[in-house]
């Protein structure tokens, strides 16, 4: 027995006629009669009293009618909700987002997405890029923004930012008047870094070691504005992405290019390769890829 059989039964009960039900459902009367007979055989009950040309529900038929109504209505609700999802009318997204880039890109992006799909709700989980990547891998979030590269055996991704880290100095610093600074010149400087759960923490330390020194880290924070504030208070130097530096008050700190080597910073939207993506998640990927542009 499938949902169509219940719909046939309900229509016969409503119209009290096999002939009228068959006409209403655009099927033959033998088809609908056979369906009801099969239902009776399957359940071992009689569903209708046949009285001349009319029919009435039996006690078993009335029980079946009540339950069949609920099942058909539940089925219709599921169908409607799935149709809404497929038409992107509703849904829920869990997106992992590093706090240092959230304010730069995503209020406007989320606003435009919400305008287009007002019934799709978005839950933002703010964490360092390492945690974001781990949460996407574990399934705690659907999609995340992570620092590239990521494990391509695990993730699909697209890149939407490719830029370099810039050096932040106090305006009175001995290097503040330069056009650019090489990394090795920072060997004796106190560094202000992001916390260890941020990918940039490891990236900067790795680049410094590659240049021949281990940085002297004096402060760590999860907030880029606090890091820039520490530089403005002459507590150390910092390396931050160009995108973040555009948000910083240039009257309080000196911002210079870093060379020999420069340190690249690339952000991407990432999601698991082997996990089902909802219709809303697929549209988020398509929408943001179109809006932000794909780099690399």
Automatic annotation (TrEMBL):
It comes from the Bacteria. Gene3D superfamilies: 3.40.190.290, Winged helix-like DNA-binding domain superfamily/Winged helix DNA-binding domain. NCBIfam families: trans_act_CidR. GO terms for cellular component: cytosol. Signal peptide: none annotated. Residues 1-58 form the HTH lysR-type domain. Belongs to the LysR transcriptional regulatory family. This is DNA-binding transcriptional regulator, LysR family.
């Amino acid at each position: 027995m499938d949902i169509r059989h219940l719909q046939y039964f309900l229509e016969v009960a409503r119209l009290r006629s096999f002939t009228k039900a068959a006409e209403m459902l655009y099927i033959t009367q033998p088809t609908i009669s056979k369906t009801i007979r099969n239902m009776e055989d399957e359940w071992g009950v009689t569903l209708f009293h046949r009285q001349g040309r009319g029919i009435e529900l039996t006690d078993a038929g009335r029980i079946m009618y009540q339950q069949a109504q609920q099942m058909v209505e539940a089925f219709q609700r599921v169908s409607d909700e799935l149709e809404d999802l497929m038409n992107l009318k509703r849904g829920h997204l869990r997106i992992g987002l590093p706090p240092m880039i959230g304010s730069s890109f995503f209020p406007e992006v989320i606003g435009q997405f919400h305008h287009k799909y007002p019934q799709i709700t978005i839950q933002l989980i703010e964490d360092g890029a390492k945690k974001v990547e781990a949460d996407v891998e574990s399934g705690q979030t659907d999609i995340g923004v992570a620092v590239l590269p990521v494990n391509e055996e695990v993730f699909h991704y697209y890149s939407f930012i490719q830029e370099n880290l810039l050096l932040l100095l106090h305006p009175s610093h001995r290097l503040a008047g330069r056009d650019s600074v090489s990394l090795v010149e920072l060997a004796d400087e106190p560094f202000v870094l992001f916390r260890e759960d941020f990918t940039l923490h490891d990236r900067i330390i790795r680049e410094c070691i590659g240049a021949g020194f281990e940085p002297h880290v004096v402060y760590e924070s999860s907030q880029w504005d606090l890091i820039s504030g520490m530089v403005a208070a002459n507590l150390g130097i910092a390396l931050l992405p160009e995108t973040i530096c555009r948000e910083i008050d240039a009257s309080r700190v000196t911002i210079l290019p870093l060379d020999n080597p420069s340190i690249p910073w690339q952000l991407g939207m990432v999601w698991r390769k082997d996990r089902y993506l909802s219709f809303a998640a697929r549209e988020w990927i398509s929408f943001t890829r179109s809006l932000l542009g794909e780099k690399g």
